[in-house]
Amino acid sequence: MRTTVEPTSDSVAWDETHLADPHSEADKAQRVNAMFDAIAESYDLNNRLHSLWRDQSWRKRAVRLARVTPGQDAVVDVACGTGDLSLAFARAKPASVIGIDFVPRMIKLAQEKSSKLETLVTPEFRVGDAMNLDLPDGCCDIVSIAFGIRNVSDPQKAIHEFKRILRPGGRLVILEFSTPRNPVMRGLYNFYFHSIMPRTATWISGDRSGAYKYLPRSVSTFVTRDRMIEMMQTAGFESVRPHPMTLGICVVYLGLVPPVSA
Q1: What is the CATH number of the domain that holds 176?
Q2: Does residue 261 sit within a domain?
Q3: Which end of the chain is more exposed for a tag (fewer CB within 10 A), N or C?
């Protein structure tokens, strides 16, 4: 397993000198790790408040689109954070769920959350790297990643890795923020996302890492919907389709691994 990058200090992870294009930073992985370690305890609260309680419905939609076969499908949820999507999959009663994140504190919180909830399938949570998963080829039927692909140093490499661990006929589910295409909605969204949310989220969390400055910049400088589809197709996924939600604020991308030829 690839060694997890640990936070090195409580200093600022993201400042203005590194936010022009955060995806081009050579030490992006270390900065992202330090950022999530800093905001882990308030992560769920800020997600609920600043999505206006929509984030859980987005995850439920992603699970529905994955079309879980109860008792049969093995699910791997990458960049699982505090485990919300892993637990949403567990409620769909697959054969198994593994949640993976490269921030140990997030995994600890996911394990604590899971222990307090009753699900027929108990997710297994472990530390790991989206670009180098410690899992065998063709070991699962569904791979998911929610609001995490843009935080990976090399998203294309990660998508190839997701393809590697999926069986023929498997499904990749990517849930990610997007920019609304309606001009009026886009203007309102940008004002909220770039001017209001960073201030209120920072105040709630007491964050000093720059996490909520990074968030809007990481979305606005990330790949377009068309480019995401192209990346999934390049990795070998078929029937790739975007499913926009809440006026295009976020999108579920669904791609299928080709079945074995007769």
Answers
A1: 3.40.50.150
A2: no
A3: C
